[in-house]
């Protein structure tokens, strides 16, 4: 009679061991896995890992938002500079057009043509710099426009 309870206990133990699959996912763990996971802290570890991943994702989103804000500020500054440069180019073009219409002499016409070429070149460079978002080139263009403005003060 002693062998029968021992055999029943062994079968029960083997059945319980076989029922434990080692699954730590609460959605698919069976009853025995769930009990084991609760007692050995597997669920708590899983929860902690998820909270850490969530915190890292939140911080990454904050960093992206900061970078987006910085880029928006840069874009806005670049747009203002491009607008200012285009206004100055338009003003210079008006000055050149006025000088042409006032019947300039041969030397003045040659000078006006040279300034017109410089201005056209700056307009093309500004368009390329604005399209590419190259702030340094826009600033260089503004400096060149100032030089052209100085050259055309007497037009």
Care to give the gist of this entry?
By secondary structure, the chain is mainly alpha-helical. Helix content is 85%, strand content 0%.
Explained architecture:
With 155 residues, this protein is mainly α. 85% of the residues lie in helices and 0% in strands. It has five helices and no strands. α3 (42-101) packs antiparallel against α4, α3 (42-101) runs parallel beside α5 (135-151) and α4 (106-132) runs antiparallel to α5 (135-151). The radius of gyration is 39 Å and the shape is rod-shaped. The protein starts with a helix and ends with a helix. The model has no long low-confidence stretch (mean pLDDT 84).
Q: Sheet with the most strands?
A: none
The helix tally amounts to 5
Any idea what the radius of gyration is?
Answer: 39 Å
- The geometry reads as rod-shaped
Number of strands: 0
**Helical proportion?**
over 70%
Distance between the termini: 123 Å
Fraction of residues in β-strands: under 5%
String of helices and strands: HHHHH
On the 0 to 100 scale, the average pLDDT is 84
Q: Which structural class do the helices and strands define?
A: mainly alpha
Low-confidence stretches: none
Question: Main traits of this protein?
Answer:
single chain, 155 residues, mainly alpha, 5 helices, 85% helix
How are the SSEs placed, and which strands pair?
Elements lengths: L2 H17 L11 H10 L1 H60 L4 H27 L2 H17 L4
